[in-house]
């Protein structure tokens, strides 16, 4: 009886069809968080390369360990932020717009891994370039020209 009443009500007052572009409300996603984390990777890599090696010195060992920990943590944050954009924001229509979308994200994620296990200024800069490319793709899908900038 209750089902019939609900069905009759639904037929008389049908709900409007809605659609959504992404899993969350638009405006949730932003590549800037990946940029900030990637910049920390670059910064920690530079600090590690500039650190004067003093093996056995506790102060040196502690500083080295802290820089490495931060670099690895920020590289993982960069990877997480990129993967969220890749899997949650970008849709098949974006692949038509950017045929190299999957390759761009795959390479960026691989650079995050490389930056975690290495102290490489080259890979850190390549990671920043990859995040910049994602930034441009992301904002192009929104038909917005958002300036790429870095803190350093």
What is the architecture at the second tier of CATH?
Up-down Bundle
- The CATH homologous superfamily is called Nickel-containing superoxide dismutase
Unreliable spans: none
Order of helices and strands: HHHHHH
Number of strands: 0
Biggest sheet architecture: none
Number of domains: 1
Supply the number of helical segments.
6
* Percent helix: 55-70%
**Any idea what the shape is?**
elongated
Averaged pLDDT: 93
Strand content: under 5%
The computed structural class is: mainly alpha
* CA radius of gyration: 22 Å
The quaternary state of the protein chains shown equals single chain
The top-level CATH class is Mainly Alpha
- From the 3D structure, determine the CATH topology: Four Helix Bundle (Hemerythrin (Met), subunit A)
Distance between the termini: 68 Å
Can you put this structure into words, describing what you see?
The chain is mainly alpha-helical and 152 residues long. It has a single domain (30-142), classed as Nickel-containing superoxide dismutase (Four Helix Bundle (Hemerythrin (Met), subunit A)), CATH 1.20.120. Helix content is 70%, strand content 0%. The chain is built from six helices and no strands. The protein has helices at residues 2-12, 32-50, 58-89, 92-97, 101-117, 121-141. Helix 2 (32-50) runs antiparallel to helix 3 (58-89), helix 2 (32-50) packs antiparallel against helix 6 and helix 5 packs antiparallel against helix 6 (121-141). It is elongated and about 80 Å long.
